[in-house]
Amino acid sequence: MAETPPKPLNVLFLCTGNSARSIIAEAIMNREGRGRFQAWSAGSHPKGEVNANTLSLLKGLHYPTDDYRSKSWDEFAQPGAPKLDFVFTVCDDAAAEVCPIWPGQPMTAHWGIPDPAAVEGADVEKSLAFREAFRSMETRIKLFLSLPLASIDRMRLKERLDAIGRAPNARTDDAP
Which residues are catalytic? Predict the structure, then answer.
């Protein structure tokens, strides 16, 4: 009899507006996690729509974009919401806010990166900011995916998650 594959681990990425960084992180984790992870994103004060530059970047990188929406983190604190294994804040505003109580006590860490939506100037400057946010988040997610989750104790895992968040523009060869 074939073994049942393990259930994917659930990951939530939080940001204030849920229109750029957290959406980018959700997309990367769902692709790079290759079925081992299910990712979502949400915001404390969602903008109500995904930033057009976020969608343009993801489309240009061949990510599906139809299902992304800007939503409140309240959806994930309700009865019947997915049990979260990891919650990552990706902007400074969300890190400073009081988060809901997440059922199941997921591992948490702050992986803040600069807000590409805050960049002003020419379209090329904005595009570069979104690409840099993508690259930084992709690197952090790849570092996370390289961790030996099945064999690492909770305290050491927390240390590693925090180290990933502190690594400025880390590269995958700089694994904490």
Answer: 15, 91, 99
